[in-house]
Design a protein that fits this description.
There is one protein chain. This protein has about 425 residues and is of the alpha+beta class. Helix 1 packs parallel to helix 6. It folds into four domains: about 90 residues, Pseudouridine synthase (2-Layer Sandwich); about 140 residues, Pseudouridine synthase, CATH 3.30.2350; about 60 residues, Roll (Archaeosine Trna-guanine Transglycosylase, Chain: A, domain 4); about 130 residues, Elongation Factor Tu (Ef-tu), domain 3 (Beta Barrel), CATH 2.40.30.30. About 20% of the residues lie in helices and about 35% in strands.
């Protein structure tokens, strides 16, 4: 099974909630890190972008984009939900003409104030509005929930029946199309509701990119599921691109590990899609002439394999020794080079010799640690190395830092870490 990272554009059918779609994508891709970029009402259909894996880090760069919808506007009745799923609250036999509608639409283009429907998932004092409405405790959204939204395009597509019209809307995040339909009805003096809603675009994602859950299931069976995944850099193609080349190896390493480098030619104070020698690294930002990666999305091996952390072996509390795995506590290293917390297969360079090793970076939660430490257990080393210079070369991350239920569980895991590191490093160029 592939481990996908990117965006899946789901073609959500009416009747499916956005959270249901996330659950289905999680199941199809066997990936826990899954999240949508903005809900689509259960009664609505259309484009629902869902981020998978590290692409969930891109949420802030995807959620505020324009949306495009096709809706059926129905005159002659109003409902409490403002769509076809609700109870009728008003009726009229007035016939609204195409000309009246065309004349009314320009009044809703631009920045307008909108009162969300009471049957919505917005919260008041920790409770969703629709739950309060169902209990009869609320008949309209409170004043504090009014919002400014923007409608960029609004046009009539065609008439579909007596009092029924298809309209196309391009709008900002947070716009309730059913409320817009109700308000258009108010403007022409005839109650109205939204008959159905199809989202045709969300940011850069369109119907052409979208797959139903059933289609994704079929693609999984025939081994083509990866073709449905939109790569992370394409998903944020609206972010300005910055290509980096011609910098020193040291600066390359600093950039890869999240440190700032001098880059006066980069646009300042805006998000940037950063590429190094044509390879996508992630989202960065330049401030005061210095560039750093703020959201790392490149090959994770670049941040670990071959990376060196140098310092001196310092004093420690001998916890490792007490549980049978003595460690050298590295101090005085460049904190800018410190990898993320976790357990790694490493090579320790000490007194001109190389030792296969397991290095733990973190707070050692199982034994009540509070400060981040770099603890290296050297395989085959015996003796005291306190106060001597040591370099740790990182080869591969074995696992995240975990709090175990007991010290015995921790010891069993460390034994497994040792075996995995020994097998991995037995043929590694870093031990030669």
């Amino acid at each position: 099974m592939i481990k996908a990272e990117g965006v899946i554009c789901v073609l959500k059918p009416p009747g499916m909630s956005s959270s249901d779609a996330v659950t289905d994508v999680r199941r199809v891709f066997d990936e826990k890190r899954v999240g949508h970029t903005g809900t689509l009402d259960p009664a609505a259909a259309g484009v629902l972008p869902i981020c998978i894996g590290r692409a969930t880090r891109l949420f802030d760069f995807l959620v505020d984009k324009q949306k495009e919808y096709i809706a059926e506007l129905v005159f002659g009745a109003a409902t409490d939900t403002e769509d076809a799923t609700g109870s009728v609250t008003a009726v009229s036999d007035r016939i609204v003409t195409e000309e009246e509608l065309v004349n009314a639409l320009p009044g809703f283009i631009g920045e307008i104030e909108q009162t969300p429907p009471v049957y919505s998932a917005l919260n008041v004092n920790g409770e969703k509005l629709y739950k309060l409405a169902r209990r009869g405790e609320l008949t309209e959204a409170p004043e504090i929930k009014k919002r400014r939204i923007s409608v960029y395009e609004l046009e009539l597509i065609r008439k579909t029946g007596e009092g029924r019209f298809l309209i196309r809307i391009v709008c900002s995040k947070g716009t309730y199309i059913r409320t817009l339909c109700k308000n258009i009805g108010d403007a022409v003096g005839c109650p109205a509701y939204m008959g159905f809603l199809l989202r045709t675009r969300s940011g850069a994602f369109t119907l052409e990119d979208a797959y139903s859950i059933a289609e994704l299931g079929e693609m999984k069976e025939n081994g083509t599921l990866d073709t449905a995944v939109i790569p992370m850099d394409r998903a944020v193609s609206h972010v300005k691109r910055l290509d980096i080349s011609g910098i020193s190896k040291k600066n390359e390493q600093l950039l890869i590990h999240g440190a700032a480098i001098k880059c006066t030619e980069a646009p300042q104070d805006i998000p940037l899609r950063v590429y190094l020698h044509g390879e996508f690294l992630g989202i960065g930002e330049a401030r005061n002439g210095e560039l750093r990666i703020t959201v790392w999305l490149g090959d994770e091996a670049h941040q670990i394999k071959g990376m060196k952390l140098s310092g001196r072996v310092g004093s420690h509390n001998h916890i490792g020794t007490r549980i049978g795995f003595p460690t050298a506590n590295l101090e005085g290293y460049d904190v800018r080079q410190l990898p993320q917390e976790g357990v790694y297969a490493t090579v320790a360079e000490l007194d001109g010799k190389k030792y296969p090793a397991v290095t733990s970076i973190g707070r050692n939660p199982t034994v009540g640690g509070r400060n981040v430490t770099v603890e290296t257990h050297m395989l085959g080393f015996e003796g005291d190395c306190y106060g001597r210079p040591m370099t740790v070369v990182f080869v591969k991350k074995l696992r995240p830092m975990i709090k175990f239920g007991s010290v015995e569980e921790l010891k069993e895991q460390i034994s497994r870490d040792k075996r995995e590191a020994e097998a991995l490093l037995s043929s590694s160029k870093y031990t030669e």
